[in-house]
């Protein structure tokens, strides 16, 4: 909470404002509507009627007939904002899952290429067989087989860094 307060204070000090289109649209909508009027669709809106603040002389609260009406409008706005927030959170989680899946697929593809390169290198040792390899190529290949499914091969591990994430 202290961090939020410090960010708010810094924002006010630097006179920063959001340029986010969704916020700017919402702000324009709220500023453009007449407070306390209710549209037929069930949302508070810009329809002028008997509840318009300038037409009213009964001393309502911010254009609303009662404090309860103002609170009900605020509750409705909050519910709408929470619904939008929930949809955005779900979309973010789907994108995060897709990103993770793509990273795993990319890592698997890279490891498969690495294994193919190692296999090709071992086949090259077998073909050359002029003592370039210290271990017989078949034995080296068989040693790497039990660990092949997790991406460990008979290579200089210090020369590369690997990650499954």
UniProtKB/TrEMBL annotation:
Region (Disordered): 35-56
UniProt keyword annotation of Coiled coil present: yes
Pfam families found in the cross-reference section: FAM167 (PF11652)
InterPro entries on file: FAM167 (IPR024280), FAM167_domain (IPR051771)
Coiled coil: 78-105
Protein keywords: Coiled coil
Domain of life, per lineage: Eukaryota
Keyword Membrane: no
Family stated for the protein in its record: Belongs to the FAM167 (SEC) family.
Protein name in UniProt: Protein FAM167A
Lineage: Eukaryota, Metazoa, Chordata, Craniata, Vertebrata
């Amino acid at each position: 909470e202290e961090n939020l307060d410090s960010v708010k204070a810094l924002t006010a000090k630097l006179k920063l404002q959001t340029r986010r289109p969704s916020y700017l649209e919402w702000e324009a909508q709220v500023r453009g509507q007449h407070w306390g009027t209710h549209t037929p669709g069930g949302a508070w809106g810009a329809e002028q009627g008997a509840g318009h603040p300038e037409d009213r002389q009964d001393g309502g609260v911010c254009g609303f007939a009662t404090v309860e009406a103002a609170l009900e409008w605020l509750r409705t706005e909050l519910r709408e904002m929470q619904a939008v927030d929930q949809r955005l959170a779900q979309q973010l989680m789907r994108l995060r899952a897709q990103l993770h899946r793509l990273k795993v697929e990319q890592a698997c593809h890279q490891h498969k290429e690495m294994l193919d390169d190692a296999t090709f290198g071992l086949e090259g040792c077998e073909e050359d067989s002029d003592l370039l390899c210290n271990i017989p190529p078949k034995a080296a290949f068989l040693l790497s087989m039990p660990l092949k499914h997790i991406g460990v091969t008979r290579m200089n591990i210090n020369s590369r860094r690997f990650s499954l994430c």
